[in-house]
Amino acid sequence: MSENNGSRIFREAWIAGVRKHFPGEPKPSYVTPWEDMPDWEREAAEAVYSQVHQFLEVSAGHASRLSREQKGRFVAVCWTAQMYRHFEDPKPGYVADWPDLPDWQKETDSDIFEAIENE
């Protein structure tokens, strides 16, 4: 899978999840198309896509047996690591722990894992 395809799958799943789960109208940056994303965000999306993809591979597909919450937590932790990689002092919301994330974001992170799993 090329870099563009992985990060695009991630971003498309993010946008679909935001549109489905976000209460009200999301901020424009939440639904910015892949083509308009900043480079750091594309790189982060590709890295998280790759981590989920590799996780599924090394588990021989058995990671699909994780609960929906476990899948979302995995995406959230991978994303947090990318925020520390790209920002010296990231915004607290970028690195919030799972219990502190809003429900819409938890659901969206779970959707991302499942989108990668089902590709």
**Rg of Cα set:** 13 Å
Distance between the termini: 11 Å
Counting H and I runs of at least 4 residues, what is the number of helices? 4
Estimate percent helicity.
55-70%
Mean pLDDT: 94
Q: What about the largest sheet?
A: none
Globular, elongated, flat, extended or rod-shaped: what is the shape?
Answer: globular
SSE blueprint:
Elements: H1 3-21, H2 39-58, H3 68-86, H4 103-117
Descriptive account of the structure:
The chain is mainly α. It has one domain. Helices cover 61% and strands 0% of the residues. Helix 1 runs antiparallel to helix 4. The longest helix is centred in the middle third of the chain and has 20 residues. The model has no long low-confidence stretch (mean pLDDT 94).
Summarize the structure.
This protein is an all-alpha fold and 119 residues long.
Which key features would you list for this structure?
119 residues, mainly alpha, 4 helices
